[in-house]
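Incident log, support desk, overnight shift.

02:14 A customer reports that sequence design results differ from what the structure should imply. Their input is reproduced verbatim below. On-call engineer (initials T.W.) acknowledged and began investigating.
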């Protein structure tokens, strides 16, 4: 199987996944805001309940804006590929044999990609610091958009968790009543009709619960990779218990992805200072541990 053609074929599926993302967002918006908490906000005479509705609606919109901002940023940001000047500076790909390394130094070895027929910087697989190809964003995740992908995961997890918290109680209450009145055919029929009217909201609660559980696994996995400065591809390259050569400690590992400016950590963008001072954000040079020979 030609994996590169297969990866390209995933783009067709990816466009469908983008539509699915918007569909899930639209259903959640209707279920949480339009149908549940907005009516409470404008109709309830209970100040405490109205304040709670205002808080939930505000938090929902904030997380939604951050989710969509992160999503569009990771979709439209090029993860990075080998630039022309890098090929020229390292002799181009024509004079190299597949599987060879050309340079050794503080930033690790320079290799060769037989598919691209070009030299490659450390940690590179056709995409700079390749992590994986994600069908949900119709893009690869690499050096220049990994932070945006992590923020997309984070805000999606928080948004779906909020949806579950505000929708799941009504879902449980509905089915508790259905079980309680199951002995009465007339009442059961009325409940079935009621279920037909609100199935969209209850289905949304179940879907969001499934998303929360699956997203939690992804968040934990990528936090683990982030803490050791490892990509999904590099997990298979580590040598046993030997410490990874790019693992500079949790603080420096975090800064290589999120930058040093704390004000930008939760935003899908970088400060100009970080873009110029942190070489790893360009995906070409990665400092290694001094106690490990590259």
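02:41 Re-run completed on a clean worker. Output:
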């Amino acid at each position: 199987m030609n994996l590169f053609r297969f990866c390209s074929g995933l783009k067709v599926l990816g466009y469908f996944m983008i539509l699915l993302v918007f569909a899930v967002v639209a259903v959640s918006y209707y279920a949480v805001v339009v149908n549940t908490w907005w009516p409470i906000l404008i109709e309830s005479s209970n100040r405490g309940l109205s304040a709670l509705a205002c808080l939930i609606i505000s938090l929902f919109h904030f997380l939604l804006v951050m989710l969509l901002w992160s999503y569009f940023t990771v979709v439209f940001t090029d993860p990075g590929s080998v630039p022309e000047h890098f090929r020229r500076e390292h002799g181009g790909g024509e004079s190299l044999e597949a599987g060879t390394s050309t340079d050794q130094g503080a930033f690790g070895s320079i290799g060769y990609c037989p598919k691209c027929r070009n030299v490659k910087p450390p940690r590179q697989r056709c995409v700079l610091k390749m992590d994986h190809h994600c069908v949900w964003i119709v893009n690869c995740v690499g050096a220049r958009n990994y932070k945006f992908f992590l923020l997309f995961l984070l805000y999606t997890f928080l948004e779906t968790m909020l949806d579950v918290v505000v929708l799941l109680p009504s879902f449980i209450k509905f089915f508790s009543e259905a079980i309680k009145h199951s002995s009465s055919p007339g009442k059961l029929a009325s409940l079935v009709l009621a279920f037909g009217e609100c199935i969209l909201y209850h289905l949304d609660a179940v879907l969001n619960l499934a998303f929360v559980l699956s997203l939690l696994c992804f968040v934990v996995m990528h936090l683990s990779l982030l803490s050791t400065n490892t990509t999904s591809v590099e997990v298979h390259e580590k040598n046993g218990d030997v410490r990874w050569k790019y693992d500079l400690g949790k603080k420096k590992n975090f800064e290589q992805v999120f930058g040093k400016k704390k004000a930008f950590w939760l935003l899908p963008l970088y400060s100009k200072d970080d873009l110029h001072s942190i070489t790893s954000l360009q995906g070409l040079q990665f400092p290694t541990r001094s106690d490990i020979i590259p």
